[in-house]
Automatic annotation (TrEMBL):
It comes from Deinococcus depolymerans. Belongs to the glutamine synthetase family. PANTHER family: GLUTAMINE SYNTHETASE, TYPE-3 GLUTAMINE SYNTHETASE. Residues 184-619 form the GS catalytic domain. Gene3D superfamilies: 1.20.120.1560, Glutamine synthetase/guanido kinase, catalytic domain (3.30.590.10). Signal peptide: none annotated. InterPro entries: Gln-synt_C, Gln_synt_N, Gln_synth/guanido_kin_cat_dom, Gln_synth_cat_dom, Gln_synth_gly_rich_site, GS_Type-3, GSIII_N. This is Glutamine synthetase III. Transmembrane segments: none annotated. Residues 86-179 form the GS beta-grasp domain.
Amino acid sequence: MNQDFDVNSAARNWRVDTTPSASPLEVVNDLFASDVLTLEQLKARLSKSAYKSLQATVERGAQLDASIADTVALAMKTWAMEKGATHYTHWFQPLTGSTAEKHDSFLNPAGDGVAIMSFSGKELIQAEPDASSFPSGGLRATFEARGYTAWDPSSPAFIIRHANGATLCIPSVFASWTGEALDLKTPLLRSIEALNSAVTPALELFGASAGTRVGSSLGAEQEYFLIAEEYYYRRPDLVMTGRTLFGAKPPRGQELEDHYFGAIPDRVLSFMTDAEMQLYALGIPVKTRHNEVAPGQFEIAPIFEHSNIAADHQQLIMQVLRTTARKYGLVCLMHEKPFAGVNGSGKHCNWSMATNAGENLLEPGDTPHENMQFLFFCTAVLKAVDTHQDLLRACVASASNDHRLGANEAPPAIISIFLGSELTDIFDRIVSGQGGSGKSAGLMGLGSSVLPEIPVHAGDRNRTSPFAFTGNKFEFRAVGSSQSISFPITVLNAIVAESVSELTAELKAQLDAGQSLDEAVTALVKRTYQQYQRIVFNGDGYSDAWHQEAEQVRGLLNLRTTLDAIEHLNSPKNTALFSKLGILNERELAARQEIMYDIYFKTVNIEGETTEYMAQTQILPAALNYLADLGKVGGNRAAQAVTAEVSAAADALYDAIQALRVQNEALGGDEVHEKAHHMRDHVLPAMSEVRTAADRLEKVVSSKLWPLPTYRQMLFVK
């Protein structure tokens, strides 16, 4: 397969022009959520009482009535079989960060050569997968294998199609025999309840009606790279680790800044359209697609959804992108830094809170300085982020994200909040007692009568902030591209729930003392902003001056690596937070920390061994073969000079390989914590030395002998 891939020869399942009598809009409208068992679909298939019971659970968080399970299971099975499904699976998110599924057939032998298709309420509500091979962080011994998946009715069932059929996927949670959460979804659902319990009392003080429910909403931007499939399989590092462990900087990378928002190559656009149509069928409201900063880098983004649905949809987006890319001779790379020296990939999580009536609690409105409710909740977020900056850093910590955080392309490891000039001015005026708003939006003329005047935001954007207010939401930009968003959302829900609860108690005390609502909120906002103002930074988060100011003047944490961050995860403060909110108990939180150490160790260990293998068996032999070829030239002056250069680089590579081998074999101790630190402190530096020598050789060894596809070849998709 060569780079000049024929788009027309790709097997495409989705085309908007296959039905000439229907417009593209009609095709998409008919397609959207067609493979999702929505409440509307269930309404037509359930009795009125069963539907109302399920609706109360899904929309109002009522306790699930197990007596309706058989009715729902029958409707689910019938619908799935109409869609071509022969099997079902409880689809869940274990602590690996990806998804898991065990397929069971609807078919049940009935004897005498007869079989029936059945699916009971008992099978819907609970399944028993083997829990021994999933990470548990010590919650379960390996020989204690029993685990349970349980149906999550708040997330709709859906169909996943493959070349020979379809499977009914039932979103589920995963727990141990002792009832402890072994997944990412259970804590997320608990955090949503905690947020609702914390925010609704606050809303009551602002006059909200009884029965109001609150949840978090989220829209996650997914960045990714595409490379030709043939190059992928010729790179053991990409296959084994998801990133290139070797690769000299190409003559051209992203320096010309011509890729960002550039014209999308036809092959890539065909892939994107195919993927989008599949995502539409799954009810995923993807909205945006474009070229990203680096060559070969792209982005897809859905609009806002309830956060538990958004978490499921994010996993499906990654799955669909990966599988669809193969149909076009491409491989989709989700690693945070697959190529050194060019822009890395993140997953910006746009988070907000909203009521069941659709009111966004972080919407400032036209007069934010007068919007007491908005100022209250915005202040609560400031307090939450300052108090739990360690937890926000820890929830995005991974060996792969370490390559991205702190570089001049992504948020620094120091957590801060960008408010923008308008909001900062409002808070400053509240503190000074001035009140009012000194900055406002206006219109901008563009210097030509044919161009319209356009509305101008009162504040600019800041692309260097890890946590930025962007109009009516906060954008958490430090989340990694390969990461599940469930834990970051859980953390955001939890820290804001705690903060809102504490501020609500203060506000209620002031109101009980006779203050008016405006007076009480103004005093509370002023006091809270003064206390947590250090977390607000609207400047350049990449600058050395900010790092110095953040640490030495403001006292903010700078947790530079994953291991620096995750040691804070189960601190007494964080353990108390999750415990009192009923999100994670002490054992569940400690287990997650243990798993993060283990994954870090294994990730770098695999990278270290892969580096050693490739350098020893591919790169060093290429250099020696080139030296042998040069020796045949004789006494030519150029040959002698090149021979000396290649020989020196080969010697440096050989020495670096031997040093890395020593570190790979040492492992650093028996405990996973010791092993993880050994990987960071010894294996990663040794890998860097090997790469430096190898990349030097790539620039001088004959391209005919070089064994690996280069950055020059891989980054520019045709």
